[in-house]
Predict the structure.
Amino acid sequence: MIRVTLPYHLRTLAKVNDEVELTIDGRATLGSVLDALEARYPVLRGAIRDRLTSQRRPFVRFYACREDLSLEPPDNALPDAVADGQEPLLIVGAMAGG
């Protein structure tokens, strides 16, 4: 079981509470978690990753175990603490301004 924490705007879009739980078949990677998240909540397709390229949206970041995973390849294994449900994968909406 993987725990995923979504930012407010994505929780509102998916109509879920603060954290969702997903079951991943096989190795837990960022890509497999995002695939499972979008399969369970189709309304999130295109909100986290581009629909055509599957690239992370510019103002979306991924964190796990106090590490920024945003620039990591999507097929890298997630930390063990995330894979076994001890720690959540955080999806964060980044801010910018001028």
Notes: The longest helix spans residues 30-40. The chain is about 20% helix and 20% strand. The domain at 2-93 is CATH 3.10.20.30 (Ubiquitin-like (UB roll)). The radius of gyration is 13 Å.
